[in-house]
Fold this protein.
Amino acid sequence: SVLFGCDGMTHGKCRCKSGHKVVSWSEREIDDWLYDLGYQTIYEPEVPTEKGKLIADWLILPQKGLDKPVIIEYWGLLREGNRAQWVEQRLPRYKEKKIYKENLYESLEDYYYVAIYPNDLENGIDMITEKLEILK
């Protein structure tokens, strides 16, 4: 699939300031904000849970006042308004997966969990700062 709006596209992925290659312009924006704020992150890490390993979008290891790793998920398909037909078709399963993953993440005592939604992006880098400051 071809993504539009990303500089530095390689094999359908967007290159970030961190060197990560992400799958969308929105993920690149989030990754770049985390990088600009000085957080070292792991993109698409495996997170061990009681039901097996899950792939999160990002993991921030303890740093800059965070006493536990932070799991970050960007729920990009939950954008309001006009959606492509393929998104509409995938939404029911996507929402089920979201509930499943969030229930597992929230049961992990050794991690924090942060959800990011498309409308959060309107607040720019301040949104990331606010969501992480609450955890400190």
